[in-house]
Design goal:
By secondary structure, the chain is of the alpha/beta class. The chain has a single domain, classed as 3-Layer(aba) Sandwich (Rossmann fold), CATH 3.40.50. The chain contains eleven helices and ten strands. The strands form two sheets. The chain has a seven-stranded mixed β-sheet, with helices on both faces. A three-stranded antiparallel β-sheet has the order 1-8-9. Helix 6 packs across helix 9. The longest helix has 17 residues. The chain is globular, with a radius of gyration of 19 Å.
């Protein structure tokens, strides 16, 4: 079954499809601290560090948190998609980093020397990678001794109340990202490679008030983005019923976590 975790060339040639899902999370997540600032506050960064962001996408994260980061970071952006990479570079070159460079890269064969980076970040991207253990091994390789890998991903029950609506497309009633690389897999693979891992979950939930944003987000990837008119009509009906039952809102829980491992040194 096609899903958000497949068809990367089409899904991520640029940020257009990703933007619909980003909007849903940005506009309707309720949390004491927003996702990007929360992650930034836990990254083990210090002034002058060399940082690699694998699967950087359009670099929304760095643009959002740059003013709160330590000074003089040397940021390297890497993505398999040249379109995403260029968007990220365009966005970050104007920000207050010591320097920003970019490299098109496959996470399972990183084009960097051993021990190059103080911190490697892989945010919500490992569920797109077929050989996740190899990717984590590559991230370990390019870290300096004592360096850190920070990975974010979703749990199996993330936004389940929303993903249950996609069964009209024949999709399972859960987050495909959490199924492909969820909490258990992230913890197990990082522990196996590094010998240590800590996990923290972002305390948040969603209160969605606009049905159309649910429709746009869940039809931004397969199979929703290639559904028939009949399936789309059934999907709209399912969304309408969910909002009716919820009194005009759709309340869903979130499971989104940060995993950090340290390379022995």
């Amino acid at each position: 079954m096609s899903s958000i975790t497949t068809g990367n060339d089409e899904q991520y040639s640029d940020s257009h499809k990703l933007a619909a899902r980003g909007r849903l999370n940005r506009e309707y997540t309720i949390a004491e601290t927003g996702w990007f600032p929360w992650v930034a506050g836990q990254l083990p960064l210090k002034s002058g560090d060399r940082v690699l962001d694998i699967g950087c996408g359009p670099a929304w994260f760095w643009a959002s948190v740059a003013p709160e980061l330590p000074d003089d970071l040397h940021l390297t952006l890497a993505d398999l998609s040249p379109g995403m990479l260029q968007e990220g570079l365009d966005r970050c070159h104007a920000l207050a980093f010591a320097n920003v460079t970019g490299q098109q890269a496959d996470a399972t064969a990183l084009p960097f020397e051993d021990g190059t980076f103080d911190t490697v970040v892989a945010m919500h991207m490992l569920y797109h990678v077929a050989d996740q253990a190899q990717a984590i091994a590559e991230m370990h390789r390019v870290l300096k001794p004592g360096g850190h890998l920070a990975v974010t991903t979703n749990g199996a029950n993330n936004m389940r109340g929303m993903y249950e609506l996609t069964t009209v497309f024949g999709s399972p009633p859960y987050d495909p990202a959490g199924a492909a690389f969820g909490y258990e897999t992230a913890g197990r693979l990082m522990q196996a490679q590094f010998g240590n891992v800590t996990m923290t979950e972002h305390p948040a939930h969603m209160r969605i008030t606009e049905p159309e944003d649910v429709f746009l987000a869940l039809t931004s990837y397969p199979p929703g983005d290639r559904a028939s008119e009949e399936e789309l009509a059934a999907f709209r009906a399912a969304i309408s019923e969910a909002f009716r039952t919820g009194g005009g809102v759709l309340e869903v829980g979130k499971e989104t976590g940060l995993f950090v491992s340290r390379k022995a040194g």
